[in-house]
Design a protein that fits this description.
Layout: E1 9-12, H1 22-33, H2 41-59, H3 69-84, H4 92-106, H5 115-124, E2 128-133, H6 137-146, E3 158-160, H7 161-164, H8 171-181, E4 188-192, H9 195-204, E5 208-212, E6 227-229, H10 232-241
Parallel strand pairs: 1-2, 1-4, 2-3, 4-5, 5-6
Helix pairs in contact: 1-4, 2-3, 3-4
Length: 253
Amino acid sequence: MMDISLKKGIFFDVDDTLYDHLPPFTKAVQEVLQLSEAFPYEAAYRRMRHYSDVLSEQMGGAGALEAGAATELMRTRRFQLALGEFDVALTGEQAAAMQAAYIGCQYDIVMFPGAKAMLERLAKAGYIVGLITNGAGAHQRRKIEAMDIDALIPRDRQFISGEVGWDKPDPRIFKRVNEQTGTLPENCIYIGDSWNNDVVGALQAGWTSIWFNHRQVQPLTEHAPAYIMSDYTDLQEQLVKMGILPLPDRKDA
């Protein structure tokens, strides 16, 4: 049996880390409102993510968002609050239509260039590779299935807050991952895009944090991730420098 002190884990967030979460939002807004390309979709998307986290926490967090009228109201309200900051007033009917379009687009997704190859290389190198993501179980699993991640990461290493019982940044979800995978916090790396959920959460749990800051946003606190990466090419180079990955073969470069 492998000594627990030797087991190394590398875990990834899902939304906006393994795939770009902006296109589904943009498509949903355009479908309902037919706004021009000049509209600041990325800024509005970031505000929608903010309100999604705030409203989710108000509703009870993990496990509370699988289904029901209250959940649907929260999910439409986040669009109203976010777009309202950009002088776009949504009716309840428009917000509901936008949410429906958004959900439909969320399962038509592909991984960032280089993401799949990285998961494969890490697993081949012997690391415990997994996912830690906030959200309702069924909803997040549909995204995972859409990207065919089950073929890369076994389900017992896919940790969804709605199934585990705690949302990131709660350190308890990271502790559960350590317990279930037989790893120690000091031997685990977490890679994610959200400052509060991913960077702060991982650091508070004693993990090494790599911030996948592909949107080039500013940090919100004084916490310091070990590294800041903007794409999977940069991330691969950093993992090579850290001795986690070998130099890529010419065909993989």
